[in-house]
């Protein structure tokens, strides 16, 4: 799976921001043709996005374009223009406000036609945003709609609006609610993602100056299994990368656990043993493998005494 700890949103109508995105340490950049672009600029923004993909060096990042929703008048033109103009520089198409599997079937078939027509060497993936009640209720069929699907993304702004919740700081948690009012939908999304082998990404946090709040939201998403979070500002990039990576101590501890468990099962022929004061077994191995894989994907290496 691609590394997506930090997913940077870039307005497709801003030449300055399209250029700046190439210099930031975000794992993913998505060039936005939807909410970040005025309706009067949407058609012109397509060519800007194509030019950005062909001009700027986004190498080392997952390159994504968010098109307008399938039910809008812009979706078809967005996909055909972007894929036709820069499909060989594109990793995924992000589809907003997905409500059912049929919408992804449309994008899937359209991409197949365009890949054939333009003789693209790469297969373009799909990212699906869950932003309303219908999408949440149909999450299981959406998650298995197409082999192209790579991520399920929670869209907190539109979801709050659809629920009738007047929360103007998008991605925040109301202190007046006795708990987390978005926990159910976040859990639904990550559970479906794990069941069908795709990644789960949390959406934006719009209070840019509140970096502590952003860090809390990253940690909250990571603690229920999310792979990354949207970034709206350069100040959020490093925070997301840190929060969705294990610490060096956690990485080294997981490596030691794997070594200890391998010795226990392969040499001592035991299924459960004591290791550094705790009982470890097959479930422990699976958790440690996830920690090591996440760290390795982020470029981490064990310290000298970790093995």
Supply database-style keywords.
307 residues, two-stranded antiparallel sheet, 10 strands, globular, 8-stranded parallel beta barrel, 12 helices, alpha/beta
Question: Care to describe what's here?
Answer:
This protein is an alpha/beta fold and 307 residues long. It contains twelve helices and ten strands. An eight-stranded parallel beta barrel has the order 1-2-3-4-5-6-7-8, surrounded by five helices. α1 (15-21) links the parallel β1 and β2 (28-32). The longest helix has 19 residues, at 248-266. It starts with 5 loop residues before the first strand and ends in a 10-residue tail after the last helix.
**Terminal-residue CA separation:** 26 Å
The low-confidence parts are: none
Q: What is the CA-atom radius of gyration, in angstroms?
A: 21 Å
Helical proportion?
A: 40-55%
Number of DSSP E strands: 10
The structural class is: alpha/beta
- List the helices and strands in order: EHEHEHEHEHHEHHEHEHHEEH
The mean pLDDT is 95
Number of helix segments? Answer: 12
Oligomer: single chain
What is the percentage of strand-forming residues? 5-15%
3D shape: globular
User: Largest beta sheet, briefly?
Assistant: 8 strands, parallel, barrel
Strand order in the largest sheet: 1-2-3-4-5-6-7-8
Topology (elements, then pairings):
Elements: E1 6-11, H1 15-21, E2 28-32, H2 42-55, E3 62-66, H3 75-86, E4 92-95, H4 101-117, E5 125-130, H5 133-137, H6 139-143, E6 149-154, H7 156-163, H8 183-195, E7 199-202, H9 211-223, E8 228-231, H10 234-243, H11 248-266, E9 273-275, E10 278-280, H12 282-297
Parallel strand pairs: 1-2, 1-8, 2-3, 3-4, 4-5, 5-6, 6-7, 7-8
Antiparallel strand pairs: 9-10
